[in-house]
Amino acid sequence: MLVSHKQAPSLKRQLWVAFLVVPPIAFMSLFVVYPILSAFAYAFYDWQGLARGEFVGLKNFREVLFGATMAPVVWNAFLHNVYALIALMVIQNGGGFVLAWLLYKEPFGFRFHRIAVFVPVVLSTIIVGFLWKLFLNPNFGIVNQALYALGLDSWAKPWLGDSSTALGALILANAWHFIGFPTLVYLAGMQRIPPEIIEAARLDGTNEWQLLKNIVWPLVAPSTTILFTLLFIGAFNWFEIPYVMVGLDGSPFGSTDVLGLVFYRTAFGNQSASIQNFGLGSALATLLFLFIVVFASMLTLWLRRREIQF
Amino acid sequence: MKLTRRILMAAAAGSFLFSGTAAMAQTELSFWSWRQEDKAFYQDMIKQFQEKNPGITVKFETFAPENYQTILSTALAAGRGPDVIQVRAYGNLETIATPGYLLPLDKQNVPELANFPESALAAETLRSDGKVYAVPFATQAQLVVYNKKIFQDAGLTPPKTWDELMKAAETLKAKNITPFANGTATAWQNETIVGGLLSSMLGKDFEADIVSGKANFTDPRFVNALAKLKDVSQYFSPNFTGVDYPSSQQLFAAGRAAMFAGGSYEIANFKKQNPSLDLGVFPAPVLKAGDQALVATYYDGGYAVNAKSDNKDAALKFVRFLATPEYGTAFTNTLKNLSPIKGIKIEDPITQEVAKLADNSMSYLMLVRFRYQEPSGSVLLQSNVQKMLAGQQTPEQAAAEINKGIATYYKPFQK
């Protein structure tokens, strides 16, 4: 017993470990590490379509960050990503926390609602996007129809065509789609809290707000770490919902443009408006990747520190 | 040793001969396209070609239009790709032709190039070397499509001048009919609307002045035309800023709107969705009677030969077939899409009308001249017109923004 695990592991065991570890590493290297590294390399070249031209050093990066043509588009999109991050943090993660608490208290029909709230997450994002595009159609969509029925005619709007509401509409559609995920993660986190702790707090006479703020919120910190980090990554890689609902241009006039759309039209071209520039696209992808890695790591480290062992 | 080598050589030679005869018996060409909806037509044409050219078979493959350019350029970059390629025109042709993926065509290897007008060949010509790289396949015109029945019921005839257009729209609106099905939520629709409604007010001289640098986009002709567009937009589909391309198409195809400013390619689609529609076309209205009425034309793309193809001769044979008036006639009559080939016989009356209008036209300006560099004229026109029609900038501001963007790279504007 004492010696066995000090001995060198047997060949059979090593082979077994290799058998389990090598395929996923090979897979990750081929489909994740290699593309990222090659995108990084591509960003240093001039491109004609997908044919590589000469080495241009940091020119593409300069153009993306400071160029007269590209930079205003990139920064405009970046701000929209930040806006989406903040809004989704409140609506999607905050809303998920509230829903989880309601479900945790096991109200009437909670088994049904626990599933119902998760169903949209399972739907394809493309379907959700088209669905909401139909709902928001200014002339026959149910959103405006409902407002007319309620006599709120002045509230009815061409939601996706109005630059002041379009981004908000995308954010709400996204929140509707994904709110089940934070709800479920928070619910699991809440159910991990030993019931004695909550009972004890109740006996001490805490009210609902104090209980949530001082007991539940700190004790679901591990869930918060995961959800905030994933949302951060998701908000800066945001693509599908905007692509389906407003198209590659971030219509109307760039008011819903996000970095994912900018990347796609730059790298692959927008058939109905512009041609592709693979070098600039790669430079943008590289910068976005570095930004996400650095900030997501910092965020995770910071969030980890507030987790409590119990 | 010697023996084995000899055996190996014999085997190699044998297999070489064998494959050689096999290739002689049958050359298989691959042919890529993004026109999934035209598959039946192409299969039919391929059958005709194969009957005339025994020994060559053509394999037709289609890809989704939005991914086509990416799939194609990836294949070409890897040194592969099909023998015959359907390619786009203008700036999108250049991204494929510049790296040398396409075989240059001339009157020697494709004598049928003589069947095309100059402007069609220009669409498939690389600006840097002046060589033609593809056989053009379709002429498109931006114009106004109208519903004849609605016009008749309202006692209207196709308007010739801008004032007549405004009056007709007012008449229709008073009868509770949506005058224009158009919406602006899909960005590129703003460019087609400009082409369909404003071409006559801009005029060929304006285009010539832009090309020579005598005028730029702050020119009064352009600003005034934009102002007129803003004015007529009150007759677009209700809540037009939120109406996307498919919704506006449906509105028109359902017979609930009288006009649709857009491409001649819409007609076949409208007819397919609603065969009972009786449609007509008219060019952009002129500012004052006597001015030249114009449509804005461009060419969709062409058929090219892969420079690395192993079957160049067979591929050229096929491309030459795609450049004959017989092919153009079949293309036009089956797909209801105008072939640019001279001497075709058009059956469909509305396509005849389009062909007649296309004879006197200006270019679909931003695509033809300014979609080579960023910010492309199309990106600028689409977003700034969209913004202007949403009431968030004036025609002067829109024109100034468009001009500023193009002037960053267009030499004639930098003087």
UniProtKB/TrEMBL annotation, chain A:
Membrane topology: Multi-pass membrane protein
UniProt keyword annotation of Transport present: yes
Keyword annotations of the record: Cell membrane, Membrane, Transmembrane, Transmembrane helix, Transport
Residue ranges occupied by any ABC transmembrane type-1 domain in the UniProt entry: 74-299
Regions crossing the membrane: 15-45, 82-103, 115-135, 166-188, 215-239, 278-303
Superkingdom classification of source: Bacteria
CDD domains assigned to the protein according to its UniProt record, in alphabetical order: TM_PBP2
Gene3D superfamilies, per the entry: MetI-like (1.10.3720.10)
Classification via InterPro entries: ABC_transporter_permease, MetI-like, MetI-like_sf
Cell location: Cell membrane
Annotated family: Belongs to the binding-protein-dependent transport system permease family.
Protein name: Sugar ABC transporter permease
Higher taxonomy: Bacteria, Pseudomonadati, Pseudomonadota, Alphaproteobacteria, Hyphomicrobiales
Automatic annotation (TrEMBL), chain B:
Record keywords: Periplasm, Signal, Transport
Compartment(s) where it occurs, according to its Swiss-Prot or TrEMBL record: Periplasm
Main location: periplasm
Stated name of the protein: Extracellular solute-binding protein
Species: Microvirga splendida
Family assignment from sequence similarity: Belongs to the bacterial solute-binding protein 1 family.
Matching Pfam families: SBP_bac_1
Signal peptide: 1-25
Domain of life: Bacteria
